[in-house]
Structures are given as C-alpha cells and as structure tokens.
Amino acid sequence: MKDNAQNIYEKEVWQELSDCTLCPRECHVNRNAGETGYCGQTARLTAARAALHFWEEPCLSGTNGSGAVFFSGCNLRCVYCQNHEIAQGHTGREITAARLSEIFLELQEQGAHNINLVTPTHFVPQIITALKAAKKQGLSLPVIYNTSAYEKPETLRMLEGFIDIYLPDFKYRDASLSESYSHAADYFETASAAIAEMVRQVGAPVFADGEDSLMQKGVIVRHLLLPGCGKDSRQILRYLHETFGNDIYVSIMNQYTPLSQVAGIPTLNRQVSGKEYEKIVDFAIRIGMENGFIQEGDTASESFIPAFDYEGILYNSTFRR
Questions:
Q1: How far apart are the C-alpha atoms of 191 and 163, rounded to whole Å?
Q2: Distance between CA atoms of 232 and 249, rounded to whole angstroms?
Q3: pTM to 2 decimals?
Q4: Is 307 left (phi over 0), alpha (psi -120 to 50) or beta?
C-alpha cells in the first residue's frame, strides 16, 4: 500500500509540466513522469528555506523582513551564482502545493511584510495552486516574484493577478557575456520582453505611505555589477532608463562575491572595486535616473547567502489554521 504522501503527490499533476516549456529553454520533458530539464526539477515541488529575510531592498525587507521562500533548481544557472548550492538542484526538500500554501500563511503570522518567491520560474503552476489556497485562508500580503528575468511572457501572463511586485535581475546586454556566464545568448532580448510584461501587469510603483515606506506594487530591476563589465552595465542602465523611465526602480548592486566555482575563471575571480562601482552609480545619476537603490560600504565582505538548512520548509505542528 502506498503511503499518504505518495497519494498526495499522485494527485498533484500539472498539464503544463507534461511537455514543459515554462521557460525559454523549452526542454519539452515530462516532469510529471519524473523527467528533468535544464532546471533539474521534476513536477515535485522542492524548496530549501522559508524564513524572514532582511537583505532585500529597504522597501521590501522593512523592519520585520521579507517572507522569502527559496526554491531549488534554476533555469539560468550562472557560473558565478551566489545561491549555487540550491541553483544546481541538489539541496532542497520535497513538499506539496498544500504545504507551500501553509508556508505562506506561516510567514504572514511571523510578521513578514510580503511573500518573496525566490527563483520560482520552473514551479509556476504549483505556486499558483498554493497562492489560490492561501488567499482563501486569509493571505493578504503582497507577493514578490524574484527572478533572473530569463522568463517567457506567456508564463508570466499565467501569474497576472497573483503577483504584486516583480523583482527581476537584468544581467547582461552583451550576448557573448550572457553565453559565457549563463549559457543564454538570447538573455537580453528575453529579459527585455519579460520586464516589459511585468511592467504591463503591475504598473508604476506604489508604496504604503510615500516613497520611504514599503512597496505594495511595482517593479524593481536589479543589476549586479560584475568585475570588468562596466561597459555592459552602462548599456543596461541606459536601456532601462530610456525604455521604462520612472515606471520602475533600479537597484544597482556591488555585492558580487567570487565563490569557489569561479576559481578557474580569471575574469570572475575577484571582487568589484569601489572605483568600478562609483563609476556606474555616477553614470546612472548623469543620465537622469531618479528611482533607484545603491549599496554603500563593502557589501561584498558581508554574507547575503542564507543557510539553506530547510528552515520553515517542513511541517510546523504549531501552525494555527
């Protein structure tokens, strides 16, 4: 006789995963049958951590923290990934969509300012199911879609009405960089279309009590400056400003940290210098960017990588329904 958990999993079948084309890789594998594509994940929902997270932009973390759920696997898998441990799909625990909906409500009870879906692309159908259930049970927090922006507009349109804040990266303009570092020569064109769809869905930024308060709706585009890539960063910032203006916020990040997996890649095996970062910030100001965030101090010496120890993932017997 099969156990109850197995029976639950058998009921969780999503049509979109039988011939998976959720992301631009379009692997066409049957994840419902246990096959894996580029993301490394089957249809079984896998996550490595669900907890209050204090290292997002101030308007997202606030004083209580963002309720971040870190999903396992990734459809981009950059060679320098700061979350390498979970992006490869080797770390995580399998849960049901029903358990995910409970996690959302538990984070709300803990005082999270929002629900933060980190690297969620390959689990969109399961997440929609979980959000529907959680909203019926009282989930009222803004929901953040935290992504590399290597997304298909068609998949993003499935999320319309469920996502309040989009938090995409915009990593590259140069196709040779995106191919070398993320095996995605089409990254710029793909991310451009994805961000345009995000802005269409949620519109201009909305804050609870003015611009210094918590964001309730909108798009924040993150750009992580990579060592030696200043020219590419300037092209990205100019594109974002000329295309979206004040309809988005831009977060310019200097926290790149060379981890062990880039030891053999000389161009990536160093931190970004203070001078490199200052030049990019000065450029953003010079072209007229107004809505933005910058990082001050030596953030690369800090750890923005949480412990992927399954905190908040397993069943919490004290959860109050």
A1: 18
A2: 19
A3: 0.93
A4: beta
